[in-house]
## 1
Amino acid sequence: MTMTDPQTQTQTAGTAKGAYDGPILEIDKLSISFFTRLREIPAVMDFSVAVQPGEAVGLVGESGCGKSTVALGVMQDLGVNGRVVGGSIKFKGRDLGQMSMEELRDIRGSEIAMIYQEPMASLNPAMKIGKQLMEVPMIHQGLDEKAAYDRALQVVTDVKLPDPKRILNSYPHQLSGGQQQRIVIAMALMSEPSLLILDEPTTALDVTVEAAVVELVKDLGKKYGTSMLFISHNLGLVLETCDRICVMYSGEAVERGSIEDVFDEMQHPYTQALFRSIPLPGADKNARPLVAIPGNFPLPHERPPGCNFGPRCDYFEAGRCDQSNIPMFDVPGNERHATRCLRFQEIDWNAPITVGEATQKNEPGKVVLKMENLKKYYEVAANALFGGGEKKVVKANETLSFEARESETLAIVGESGCGKSTFAKVLMGLETATDGKILLDNQSIEDVPIEKRDTKTIADVQMVFQNPFDTLNPSMTVGRQIIRALEIFKIGKNEAERKKRMLELLDVVKLPRAFADRMPRQLSGGQKQRVGIARAFAGGARIVVADEPVSALDVSVQAAVTDLLMEIQRNEKTTLLFISHDLSIVRYLSDRVMVMYLGHVVELGDTDQVFSPPYHPYTEALLSAVPIADTSIQKEHIVLEGDIPSAMNPPPGCPFQTRCRWKDKVAGGLCEKEVPPVRQLGGGHQIKCHLPDAELNAMTPVIKVAAE
Amino acid sequence: MLFTALCLTFIVFFLTNLEPNLEKLAKTEGNFRMSDEAVQSWLSDRGYTDNTFVKFGRWMGVAPGWETVKEDGTVLRQCRDAKLPEEDRATYCGVLQGDWGYSLRFKTDVSNVISERLGATGKLMFFVMIFMVPMALIVGVLAGMREGSGLDRSLSTFSIATTATPEYVSGVIFIAVFSSSAVGLKWFKGSATSALEDITFENFTLPVLTIALYGMGYVARMTRASMTEVMTAQFIRTARLKGVSFRNIVLKHALRNALIAPFTVIMLQFPWLLNGVVIVETLFNYKGFGWALVEAASNNDIELLLAVSVVSVAVVLITQLISDIGYVYLNPRIRVS
C-alpha cells in the first residue's frame, strides 16, 4: 500500500469529517439474506435507520432478530453465504455496497470501528496488546512504530487502564475480562472513528464492571464526538447510553424513535409486551406479576404472513394483520417516531395491564436448611508446571451462616468469583466443606459427598442449571431423561408408573405431552429450561438451587420461566435458593436476599431491607450498576474503580476496601486491618461493615422514582 | 521419561533374548552341527541362560558381567578388554559404562557402528526436514487460508495422495521414472551409496524426496485444518474489520496461532521418519541407521539390534520433550509465569 504523508492524510480526513453534515449512517430499506443449499433465509427485511452525527442509536431485540446481522451488514462483512438483497447502507453519503475492497478496508477501523461481545475471543491470543493496537494507526495513518506506540499509550490511558506500559507489553490472557473489553474499546478508538458499532459490548461482563465500561463509552463518545450504534438486548442499558432506539423483532424494525417516545409512549404491541415482561421496580410476584409474551419466536423460514408478531399479539385482528407485509407508519405528533403496526392508532396504549391473577403469598414455614460458619478453601499449587512450590489457599467461602425456611425464596447475589457457585457445589455434595456445618432437617450433610448421600437427600436437594443447552443429554429423548431421574430417585414401582409420572411432570412445567418423544435439539431455550426444571422437581425436591436459571434465555422467555418456578414453588412449598447477578429479577421474586463478595456474606436480610438504606457499600454500588428500563427512575451514580480482586490474593482487612467509596469515613484505617464483624441491624438484617451507625443511617436510597 | 525408556528397552531386550533366538545365535557363532547339549553349555558359559533380569542388569551395567572359568582353564568373560592386566579389568561393563557390546555382523564395537551410521542418517534427515517442513507448512497455509477454494481443493488432493502412498511404492516409482531406462529420464541415480562420501544433487534427491513426500502430506493436512479453524476465529474478524489487508491477516495474525497445533505433529514426524528411513535406506542402498537395523535383524546381531532400539527410543523421547518446550514457546497462554 502506498502511503501518503500522514500529515496531509489526517488533514483530508479532518476536512472530510467537517465538510459532511448529513447523517453519518443511513440505512434505507435494507434486506439481508443468508443462502443455504436448501433455501434463502431472510435475516433482515426492510430495515431503515439513520444515525446523526454525535448521536447514539440503540438497536434492541431478542437473539435471532437480526440486530447483529445489521452490524455486519454495515461493515460489509457478511461471510460467504450472506448477501444484501435490497436497500442501501450509506456512510457519510457514500454507498458502502458500491465500494471496492480497497475502499472498504480504508474505512474499516479508521472511519467505522466495532466493539464485540466477547473481548477474549476478539483479541489475537498470540500477539501482544501493544502490537494489536499499534497496527491500526500504522495501517490507516501510516504512522511509524514510535508514533503508533505513543498513540497506543495515550488511548490506553484514555480508557483508564492502570499501568499502560505494562498492559501494552502483555498478552490478552493476562488481563481480566473488563480490561480486555477496555482494550477492544481502545482499539476501536485508535483512529478516532466517526461511527462506533457496539455489539453487546458488556454481555460477558459483571454488573459493576459493565457500569464502568458503559460510563467509559459514554464519556469517550462525548469526548471524540463519535456516533454510536449500540446493539443490545438489555433495554435498561440502552436507556442509559442512547438518544434514540430502534426495536427489532424477527428481522424487522418494529418501532423507532427517541428514547422518551419509545419508553413512555410506545406505539407497537411488541414493545409494550417486552416492557411488561421485564421486572421493573414496582413489579411484585404476588400482587403484580410479570406478563410473559405467549408463544415462541418464529424461526426465519417459518415467519407468519403479514405481521410477524401477529400470532403472539394481544391486539391481533384476523383478516387484517395477516394479509400483506406491513410498512412503517409515522406516528403523528412525535418527531421521527415510527411503528410497524396497522392498528397503532386504534389501540388504547394507556389501558391498564390486565393483571394476571394475583396470588396469595406463601407464609414461610419451618427451617429446612441451616448453614453454620460454612467454609470452603481450595489449595492451589503456586507453580502449575512442576507442581512444587508453595501452596496457595483460595478462600472460596468464608464463614457462611444463614437459614432457609420452607417455601421461601432466598436469593444469593454477587458477581463472578464471589463464591456463590462454590456454595452451591458444597450444598449439592459435589464438594465437601472445609469447616462448618450444613444442616438439612437437623442432619449434617457437609461432609457427605454426593456418591454417599442416600436417595432421599439427593432427591430433596436438586439444582436447575444456568445453561439449558449443555445440561441435557443431546442423544436422549426428553421423556427418557425425566424417567431416568425418576429411576434414580426410586420413584414409581414400574416403567408404566414412571411414564405416567413423567407425563404429569410435563404438565406441571406446561410442556405438551408430545414433547416426551422429542430430542433436546428440537426444543427452544425456554423449553429446554422447562425440561431442566421438570427433572429437578422429579423427586419432589424440597430445596432447589437455581443457578442463574434465566440468564441464558431471552427477555420474553425469562418471564414465563420465572413464573413457572414461582408457581411450582407455591404448590410444592419448595425452598428456592436463587443464585443470580440480576438484581431486578431478585427484587421481583425473592423473599430474602444474601449479598456475597469474595466469599464473604456482606449483607443479608429481607428483600425490602436490602433494597433500601442502610446499605452495605457493595450492595449500594451493585444497585446503582444495574440498568433499569424505566425513564421515571432516577439513580444515584456510583461507579466502582478497578476490578474484583483475585480470590487467590484477597486484600487484607475488609474484602471490599479496595473499591469502597465509604472507606475514609471509618476512623483509623480499620478497613485495611480487620475483617469487619457481622452486625445485626434489627429484623434479621445483618451487614458486614465497619461504618459507624450514624453514617449508615444517613445513606440515601440509590433508586428513586421521580415524582409523577 | 527415563522410566518409559527403561521399559521400552527392557521389552526389546526380552524379545531378542528369547530361547529359539539364542539357540540360533549359538549355532551361527559356534557350529551349525552342534548338539543340543553343546548349545546349552555354549549359552550357559556366556551367561545367556541366566534370569532375564540379571541379563538385563549386566547389559545395562548395573550387575557384574558374567565370567566363566572353563575346565581347561580358559576364562570367558563379558568384559573383553583382553589387553588390560587381570586386576584392572572392569567388573561392570554395560551401557552405563559406555560399552554397548560387540557387533557380530560388523565385527567391531557396537558404539562405532552406531555413531557412524547415525551420522549418515542424520545427514539424510537434515535434508528431509529442510525440504519437508517449509513445503508442508506453505502447502497447509495456502490451502487453509481460503477454505473450499480451488487452491484448497487441489493442494488437499495433493497432500492426501502423498500421504496415501507408502515409501516403498513412491520410491520404486521414482526410481522407475527418474533413474531407469524404462521412462528414459535418467536425471538422478537410483543408488545413494556414493552419497556417504559426497552428497550431490544427483545421488541424494530421490531418497530425500521419497521420505519427505510421505511426511509432507500429513503435516500439510494438519496445518490446513488448524489454519481453517483459526481463519474463522473472532479475532481474525476483528483484524479484518480493523482494515488489515488479507496478506497481513494471514502472515501476522493467523500464522502463529495456526502453527501451534502442527508443531507437535512435526516433532512427531521424527519417529515416523526413522520408520521411513529403514525402507528408503534399504531401497536406495544408503548405509545409514535404518540399513544397520535391517542388517542387525537379519543377521541375529542381538547387541547391535538392542543399541539401535535404545537410540530410537531416545530420539523419540527427546523430540517429544523438544516439542513440548517449543509448544510453550509458541503458545503464550501456557507460558510459565
## 2
Amino acid sequence: MRKKNAGRKNFHFVHYLLFCTALVCTALLCVCVGSVRVSLNDTIASLRSVLLRQPPPPGLSYSIIINVRLPRVFCAALVGAALSLCGGAMQGLLRNPLADGSTLGVSSGASLGAGLALCFGVTFPWLPFTGVTMMAILFAFGSLIFILSLAYKMDHSLSTNTIILVGVIFSMFANSIISLIVAFSGDHVKSIMFWMMGSLANGSYFNVLTLLCALLLFGALILRNTRELDAFAIGEDNARHVGVHVRRVKMMVMISVSALIGVCVSVGGTIGFVGLVDTAYDPYDDRAESCAAAAGDALLGRDIPHALRFGRACPLEPLGAAHRRGDVADRLRDVCRDLLSQQKGKLACCGWKI
Amino acid sequence: MLRVENLTVVCGGASIVDHVSFSVEEGRWLMIVGPNGAGKSTIINAVTQGAAYSGRVLFEGTDVSQFKPSQLAKKIGTLTQNHMVGYAYTVEDVIRLGRYAYTQGLFSAAADDETCIDQALELTGLKEIRGQSILTLSGGELQRTFLAQVIAQDPKLLLLDELANHLDLLYQKQMFELVQTWLEAPGRAVVSVVHDLSLAKRFGTDAVLLKKGQTLSFGPVEQVLSVERLNPAYDMNVREWMLNLLSLWK
C-alpha cells in the first residue's frame, strides 16, 4: 500500500473526481449549446430515452442531440484523451516537454496519408477500417520512423532538439505535398481541406467506436509501459541500466502513439497542441520551482492517467466555444486555419526549392 | 567475475577503444585510469551494451550480450558520469527505478523492495530529502541519488563512471568508503573510471591504464600506477606534480 502511495503523491482521488466532473459538465454544456439552442431538460429527456430505451420525445431536439452533437462530443473527448496520452508518452520517451504528435510532424504525416487515400481512393477491402484510417495510421508510423532516422543520421546522439527541428521541417514538407494534392485534386478539394483544418463536425458513432477501440488497445499498451516511460524520462541510458528493454519499449510506444494519432487524424483531421498543452499543464503542482518542473510534473507514469482525464475534458472546451459562437465564427475559424495551412505549405515549397 | 577480451569500439571510422582486455575477480576493485580521450567511459558504455563493439565481454563465463536487459541489471549496476534531468521526479522515484528489474509486470512488487530502497537512502544519507524534486538538487546530491539507485538495484558488479564527479571532499571520502563497505559482502566486485590518481591508489586493488584507447598496463594497482608507467601515459612527471601539490599542505 505504501508503495502505491509513494509513487503517486500528487495524484489524488479528489483530482480524479474533479476532472471527471469537469468532463461531464463540459460534455453536457457542449450538447446543449449550439446554433440551435436546446434546453437542459430536453437534453436530459433525450439522453434518458436512449439510455432507458423509451420512445423518443417529440420535436427536433432529440435528433440534433443524439444524431449530431452526441457523437461529436464523444469524438472530441476520445480524441482529446488519445492525443494527451500520446503527448505524455512522447514527452517521456524523448525527454522533451515540447514533444507531441503535432510538433514531431506525425500528425502532418497522418494527414498526408489520409489526403492521399481520399484523393486516389485508396481502400483496403480486407480490413474493417476505411482506406483513410489505414493510410493515416501507416503514414503516421512511417513519418515517425522517417523523422527519427533522419534525426539520427544528422545527430547520432538523437538529441531532442534535432528530433523536433526535423519534425517541424517534415511537418511543413508534408503540408506542402498536401497543398500540391489539393491543387490538383479537383472534386476532392473539400474533403481534403477537412483534414488540413481539423474538425470533428462529421463525427459519427462508428468513429466513436473506432476511437474507443484504438484508445483501449493502444492506450493500454502505453499505460502498461508507464514505469519504462518514467525511466526514459529520467534518461535513456539510465533506463537501460535499470533493466528496461530500451528498443522494445521505444518501438511499442512509437507504434501505439502513431496508431492513436493516425486514428485521431482519420476522425478529426490534424488537431495540434492538445497533447502538448494538456499533458504539460498541471494545476496541482505545489512543488514546481520552474516551468520545467511544472511540465515535468505532468509527466508520465504517475501522471499519464491524469493527462488522460484532463485531456478528455479539455478539447471539448474549444468545441463548446465554437458552438456558442455559432456557425459564423466556426466557419471563420476554419477559413483562418485554411489560410494558415496554405501559407505554411508555400513556405515549405519555397524551402524545398532552395 | 567480469572478463573483457579484445574489446574494440569504432566510432566514425576511428577506434576509440582498441583491443582492450582486462578482468576483475570477486572482492576486487578495478580502477580504469588514463588521460582524457583514453576511452574509459566508452568501455563502461560497451560493457553495458550501450555501444556497438567487437570482442567479448563475459560475466561469470556468459557473454553479456546473451542476457536480457532485466537479467543484466540484476548482475551489473552502472553509474554514469552525467545526469541530465529534465523532469521533476522525486529522489525516491529515481531510487525506486533501481528496483525495476525485480518488479516487472503490473502488480508484481518484490517483497524486499522497500528494504532495499530504505537501505540505499540510509547509506547515501538522502533520507531527509527523499521527497524532494531532483531538479532542486545540487550536483553532489544528484550524484548520490543515482548512486543510491544503483545500490537499490542490488547488483553483483558495480560499474562506476567518475564516482567523485560533483562531490566535495567529504562526500568523495564518504562515497568511496561506502563503495568499499559495499564490496565487503561476498560475491561482489567494482569497476570504476577514476581521474583522481590518489583516489585510485587509495581504494583500488587492480588497475588498467589506458592511453588513446590502448592498454598500457593491467595488473595490481601498485604496479600499474607506478611512476614508470604513469609518466609516459600522461606525458608529464606525475609524481613530481602530485608531490608539488601536496607540499602546499605542509
## 3
Amino acid sequence: MSTINVEDSTDWLSTTVPGLSRLETSLRCQVCRDFLTSPMITSCAHTFCSLCIRKSLSAEGKCPACREPESVSKLRRNWAVEESVAAWRAVREKVLAVARQEGKSEKGKKRDATEAEMEAELPRRTQRRKVVAIDSDDEEYRPEEERNDGLVPCPICSKRMKEADVFGHLDKCQAERQQRPPPKTAFNPPPSSQSTPTKRPQNLAHANFGLMKSEVHVRNQLKNAGIPAWGSRDVMMRRHVEWVNMFNANNDAEHPKPRGQLLRELDEWDKFQGGWAARVKKPKETDGQEYIRQHKEHYEELKAAALASMRKAVAKPVEEPKEGEPGQQQQNAPNQQQQNEPKPEASGPTGALPESTPAAGPVARADGHSPSRSSWKAPEW
Amino acid sequence: MLATRRLQKELQKMHAQLAPGLTLVKAEDLTEWVLDMRVLDDNPLYTGKTFRLKFMFSQKYPIEPPEVIFVQDAEHTIPMHPHIYSNGIICLNILDKEAWSPAQNVESVCISLQSMLTGNDKNERPPGDEEFVRGNTRRPRDINFYFHDNAV
C-alpha cells in the first residue's frame, strides 16, 4: 500500500500489441483499477477484489458493475482469475519490454538479441497454447482455411492428419501425453490453496450497530473484536466495518497476512481518518476568524447603516407611514425570516425595532439569508 | 489509500487516451480536476460550445461519487438543460449516492453528461431554478454581495 504503483492497462496502447490493453483491463478490478487481489465473483457473475467488493457492499448492497442487489454472503472466490492475474503479473514486465522494443526496432529496421530470442521461443509457445486450448471452449474455433484442408485435428494434441489415421494416432498420443504433466494444472488452483480453508479463521460478521443503543455496547463490540475501541460512536462503527472487511478480505487471500499486520493496516486507516478529520476541522476555525477579520469593516458599515435607517424608520412613520412600509417590505421580502416579520405592516417599523437592539438588525438578517451559515457563524459572534 | 491509487490510475489513463470531445484541463492534485467537454453531435443548443466541468473527489472516492459541476467563466457558459441549474449544479442520478457505482469513473461520468446534453432539445432550466440558485448562493462571499446590492 505504501508504494504507489501506477502501471496501467494503457501501458500497452503505445506498444506493438495494443490489444493487450483489453486483456489487462479484464484482469483489473473495476473499483480500484489495480490487478484483482483475491478476486471474488458475485451472484451476477462480476469479479472484483475481495476488499473492494466488501467495501462497496458495505456502502451499498449492489453490484458495482450492474447494480443488481448483492450480499457479501453470496460472494465466491474466483480461482481461475486469480491464477490468470498471478501468471500475467509474473510476465508482464518482460512482455512489456519486448512489446516496446519490438516497436522501436521495427521503426529503425534493427533487430536485437532479445527479439531474436523471442522469435525462437515463439513456436514453442504457440504449441503450448494449442495443447491448452483442448481443454478450453476454443476447440471449435479454427480459421476457415485450416478446416478446409481435408485433414482433421487430433482431439488431444490437435495435430492434423487424415481422418482414417486418427484412431491409430490416439493411442500413441494418449500414452505420450500421460507421461507429460497435464497442462491443465496450470489453470487449476494449486493444491496448497485447495487445502487451506481448514486453517482459516471464520469470517467475521458485520455488527448490527442500529440495535446498539449505548456507546458502551459499540465499544464492547470493538473490544471483543480485539481492535482499538477509542473515538466517537461514529468512528468506532466505521472502524469496525473497516476491520470486518479487511479481515474477511484477508481470509480470501491465497496467502493471508498475519493478524498483526492487519492491525497495523487498520491503524494506518485510523490515522488517515484522524488526519482527514483534523484537516477538515482546522480550516473551519481559521476560516471563521479570517472571515471576521476580513469583513469586520463591512459589518461595521452595515451596522451603521442599519442604525441610521432604523432611526429614520422610527422618526418617519409618524409623518409618512406609507413610505416607510414599502421600504421595509422591500428589504424583508427576499429574506423570508421568521423573526419579527409576521405582521410588518402593523407594528414592523416602530414597535418591533426599538433602539435597544441596534445590532440585531443586520445580524439576524444575515442569518436569515444563510441558514447554512448560522451554525458556524453564531459561536464567533 | 484507495482514492489516491484509483485517481492516479484514472489520470494516467486519461493522459494516454480520452474519449472524443473531452480534454483534461487541470489535474494538479487528486482532489480537484477540471475538464472541458464538447457535445459531438450537431445539437443546435450546444454546437460549437465548450463546457467546463469541475470534479471534486472525497477520500471515499470511488465508493462515494465525486462532486461534479459545470463552471462558468469568461469563455465557458453553463449549458441550457432542464437538469442543469444555472449555477452549474447538475441533477444527474449517477452523481447521486443512490445511483452511483464505484465502477463509474471520471470519463464515464463525462460521457454520461455528454449524452445527457446530446439527447436534450429543451432550451430551459429546471423548474425553480431561480429560487434554487438563490438559495444555494447563500454562502459567506455571496451574502455580502447580496446585502451590498440590497442595501444600496
## 4
Amino acid sequence: MLEIRKLHARAGGNEILKGVDLAVGTGEVHAIMGPNGSGKSTLAGVLAGRGDYEVTEGSVTYQGLDLLGLDPEERAREGLFLAFQYPVEIPGVNNAYFLKAALNALRKHRGEPELDTMDFMALVRDRMKVLDIDPSLLNRPVNEGFSGGEKKRNEIFQMAVLEPKLAILDETDSGLDIDALKIVAHGVNSLRRPDRSIIVVTHYQRLLNYIVPDFVHVLSDGRIVRSGGKELALELEERGYGWIEDGEPVGGRA
Amino acid sequence: MSTAERTIEELATQEYKYGFVTDIEADTVPRGLNEDIVREISRRKGEPEWLLDWRLKALRAWQGMQEPRWGNVKYDPIDYQDIIYYAAPKPRKALGSLDEVDPEIRRTFEKLGIPIEEQKALAGVAVDAVFDSVSVATTFRQKLAELGIIFCSFSEAVRNHPELVRQYLGSVVPHTDNFFAALNSAVFSDGSFAYVPKGVRCPMELSTYFRINAQNTGQFERTLIIADEGAFVSYLEGCTAPMRDENQLHAAVVELVALDRATIKYSTVQNWYPGDKEGRGGIYNFVTKRGHCRGAGSKITWTQVETGSAITWKYPSCILQGDNSIGEFYSVAVTNNFQQADTGTKMIHLGRNTRSTIVSKGISAGRGQNTYRGMVKIGRNAENARNYSQCDSLLIGDKCGAHTFPYIEIKNTSAQMEHEASTSKIGEDQIFYCRQRGLSTEDAVNMIVSGFCKEVFRELPMEFAVEAQKLLGVSLEGSVG
C-alpha cells in the first residue's frame, strides 16, 4: 500500500525528517508514536502534500504511484485521507455541501457517476449512526463553532463517507475527553477493513487501548528508531520516550 | 513564492470574456459638454420643453460643482470635454417590434446570454436592453400592460407617460445632488422606467441589461421605478462593456419610489470591464442610486454584486420617511488586479419605527483596494429606529487592501444600532483542507468565497444568484494557488 524510503524533509530551513523508512501493507493499522518535535505531524503533512514542507531526499510509493509527484487533491482522489489535528473552519459553507462536493470529486476521478442530493443524504444518514453524529452538524458551516470533540468526530465522519484506502489520523486523540475518545475510536474501528490501511499518529498510548494497532513505530528526531507489535506502545507508556532515546536502536519491521 | 501567491498570479491573468466589440454604426454628438450639446441631445430625442429646461438647470448646477475627491480611490483627472455624451446605434427610427432590432445588436445580446427575443426569454424575466445610450428592446411589454404595469425605456416613458416622469424625475436624486448626478441629469440618454400600479404584484422579474459599446463615449442612463401603494416589484440590472485601453465613464442615476406598503427589490450584477491586469483601461462606475420609502410600511432592498469596473463609486441608499418603513442593503464587492471600489450605503431614518439592515462583503485580491463607506443617520423624529450593520472583508493574497468607514449620526435617543465588522484572509490551511478532501484549488476558492458571500447571495433572485456565483468564480479565477 505504502512504502516510504529514506525520506528527508525540511520546514523553514530546518531538517525535520532525517531518513524515514516505513512500509504499510494493505489492511494494516500502524501507530506512529514519538515525543513532541520528533516529526510525527511533519510526516503526516508530507504524505498528504501540505505545502509547508520541502522533501529533499527519498521516495514514497503509494499503490505503485510516486506519491510525492501528485498534488494534494490528486492524492485525495487516489484514496489518501488525512484526519487533521486541527480541522479547519470554513465559514458559510454548509458541512453537507462540502462533503458532497468532496465525495463527488472522488467519484468523478474514479469514473463513477456523481451522487445527487437524495442518494448522498441516504449515504450520510447511514454513516452518521455509526459515529453518533448529531444530524444538525450537517447543516452547520464546516467546523465553525464546533467543539474540539465535534471537530474530531467530524473528521472521522468525513472519513466514513469518503471511504479512503489509506487514512492517516494525525493526533486524533488530542483534546478529547475519554468519552469522546471512545466514540472516535469506535468510529475508526468500524472503518477497519481488509482493504484499508490506517496510520495512527499519536503522542499517547491511550488511544491505542481502543484502536489496537498491528504495528507500532517510534519516531525520534526524524527517524524511526524502533518498531514492534502493539506491546511496544505499552512498554513506552511504562518507561517513557527517554528509554528509547537513550537506548540502542532496535531493528524492527520498517 | 507560496502556492497561494502563485495561484493569485494565475487568477489575475483571467481574461474578461465580455470584451468583444460589436461593429455597428453609431450616431454620436461631438465631443465635449456645453449647452449646445445638451440642447442637441434633447432635440435628437424629441423631448418636451420642460425636460430640456430641467437638463439645462442641471448643466448649470454641474458647471459650478467640483468633482468629489473624498473617495478612497485614485485616478488621473477626467477630461470632461473629451467625452462623447451621446451615442445611439443607427438607424434611430422607432422600433415597431423586436424583429426590427439591428441583427448585430441582437447578436451582441445573444453572446451575452441576454434574452431579448421573447420566445427565448427566461420564464418570468422581462428585459429592457440598453445598448450604448439607447434602449433597443423591451420584452413582455404586452403581458405587463394587461396588469397596468408600465415597463419601457426612459425615452418612451417621457413620450407616453410624461405626467409620471415629470412628477417623479429628480424627486429622489435632485439634479443638484452631486457632481455625477448633476452630470447625468444634464446629458442622460436613456434608461429604464417602471411603474407598478396600486396593489399589483409584478408577476415577473423586470430586468435591464446595459452594454457600453462605442469608443470614447460615456454612458449616462437613468432609471426610475415607482411602486404605488401596496405594489411589489423585483428589478434586476446587469452590465458589461468591451475591453478598451482607455477608461470610460459610466455615471448613472437610479431613483426608486415606494409608496404606502409598497416593496421594491433592486438587484444588480455589475460586470463592467475592469481593466487589464496592469490596470489599463476599464470603466469608471460613478453611480448615484437612491430609494425613497415615501409611504408607511414600505420597503426597499438593494442587493448588489459588484465584480467589474476599474473604479466603483456608489452608495445605493434608502430614505426611510414613511413610518415603519424598511431599508436593506446587501452587497458583495470584488476587487482584483488594480480595481478599486469605494462603495456602501446610506440609511436615512426619518419616520418612526424605521428599520435598516446593512450587510456588506468586500473581497480583495491581486492589488485590489476595497472600501466600505456607510452612513446611518437617525433623524430627530425617528422614534425607535433600528439599524443592524455588518461589514466583512476577505483578503486573498498580501498585496490587496480592505478599508471600512462607518459613519453614524443619531439625533433621537430611542435609536438602537448594532455594528459588526470582520476581516479575514483566505488561508493556505483552508485551501489545503479542501484539496486534501479532493477539491481543486479553484473549487476550494470558489467554495470559500461563496460561503463568505452567502448572506448576500440568498437575497438575489434564483437565476441571478447562480450567475453571480459564476461571475465571482471568473473574477477570482487564478487568484489563489
